[in-house]
Amino acid sequence: MTVDMSGRWRRPRRLAVAWLVVVVGTAFSFPTTVISATAVAAHNPPASATSCPGGPQDPSALGTTCGAATSPLAPYVPSVASLPRGAAACPSVSGKQPSSATATCTAAVAYQDSRSPILALPGGSSQCPSVAGKVSSPEAACASDQTIAQTAVHSGPISLPPGMTRCPDLGSKQSSATAACGSNPLAESATPSQTTITLPSDTQPCQSTTSKESSPTAACQSVAAVRGMSVRRISTAGSFPADIAGYSASLYESTNALPPGYSITLSAYANLDVGPTPYYIEIYDLSTGGLLAVCGSGNSCSTSISESSPTTHSFIAYIGSYSGSNPPGTIAATSGIVYCTWLSISLGASPQYLAPGGQSTVTAYVNTDVGPTPFYIEVFDASTGANLAICASGSTCSGSEAQSGATVHTFVAYVSGYGTSNPPPSVQVAASINVVWFGISLAASQVTLVTGGTTTLTATANADVGPSPYWISIFDQGSGRVALCATGSSCSVNVTQGATTIRDYVAYVGSSGTGNPPTPVAATSNSVQVTWLTVSLAANPTLLAPSASSTLTATTTQNVGPTPYYILIFDHSTQSLLASCATGTSCSTSVSQSVAAVHNFIAYVSSYGTGDPPPNPRTDSNVVAVTWWGVSLNTSSSLVGPGATVTLTATANFNVSGTPYWVEIFDQSSSPNYL
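The structure assignment produced for this chain is given below.
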């Protein structure tokens, strides 16, 4: 507004006051918060100003202009919270922080959700299959590991020993094509070193032999005690009394234990050259009855034989008449029987799948007693390199290990030379196995939803449960199991709640039982809380004078009393806690500001906390703004001469458009004083 000071010269009056006036029953509004007035007589607006519109019953004064700017606010100061007039303080709940003294709440009515959750397969996934009598639930999806194919083994051929020449024929006496012969006996191998071993619980130390010691911490069994196998004794070279005086025979083998696919050399020795005699040196496989070698001359006869699959064969040699079947028709001398094993090893663990802190006994099984061989049974934790067991004799070797946390370790066993590091020397055969100390975690795709919303729960174990005796299951702590997977290392399910609720979920590696927990349990996950819940916040009034109070009311869709959560109301502008209600579905408090200000407020359902946001918020409300009105008045000049014009500008701290208020400027020194 511009004021014209015509007439005789007077000292100008300083205009310093502006009011916001509420007109009860007005049917129109003013669009802006800044009003400027021109001279009363001429009503000419300032240059570049727009005329301020009015309402149908009370138009704006002619010559006034409006602007959209609001007056700047002072720095935020905390709101003053108080109990709404006539309201009782919200009661406290046992075990929870007391409700604040400035809060009132509605009566606590326990929420009853009679509807079952809607369970469904996650989008794009297939039902988890059932395996080996283990059934998965129809709404569960899982991820499975691939199995490793096993290769079949077959027997191998008989061949001439490497580096040797075929034993020649002599006249009418034929040597076999795969036989080598010579006059020098084969030297025996040296005795291997002594060792130490580990001892599992509830077992006895493995006995030592005269030449090979068992380690004091190793356990072993003879072949006769393992899986119903019969004892296989490996004989040293020797001879029987001569069948015909003057003849003797002995049989030697290059080794008595070796991997499948490798060859041994059998060497038979006579005490004389059989060439001038009517007899042959012959070697037979006693296990099959087959003739392996025939030498018609010399005092030795050798051949090589291999087997591609694990087996034990016995062999014998004769000095006798030529024959293709065992024994020959005429026997001049018979050797001792020797045994050779084409080794196999397998590895087992008991238990193989267990809970953290549990102990597993890992046992290697070999198809012969290693005592008479130059080899040991050794077991290592390949994940750490630690030696678990060394056994100098027996056909089994065991060691035990425990792990305090969830992990998967690979164990490996060998028939080998003596060694304390992995791998040991002279490995003949090896086998491995994984031992699982189960662990599991649970996650939800969304933890805060509106009613009718869907979340995907996914439990992830550290190993595939398919080969184990366990399932992955997911439970609603309040209502029961929601998913069961018989195989795979993960298990997922979609859960939809059609009503307001806060649900706690947990996953297990355990049995397929429907009880919570499904005992026996190998692993338990973290707990995941999913909230189907809303909270809204309202203020009444949202526009008021300084020092007046506005009532803030937060309303939830579930009574928080039976839950571990609170309804909390914060001054979002200062991040200060105004009210906390430990029970009820609504929480109210009154707030005031002593000066003109605009503050934002927000409500949460969460754990108790005084910071904004509080810990573990389950849901938050809309933000509500409350304005404690204020107005300022400025003049273009505070000292002018007669006839001069000044512009008065009143600025409110909110836009009066859309409200029942307008901005007016008055001259307090004259009557009428409305400008």
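Interim note for the steering committee: DSSP finds no helices and 48 strands in the chain. Residues 1-71+630-675 form one domain.
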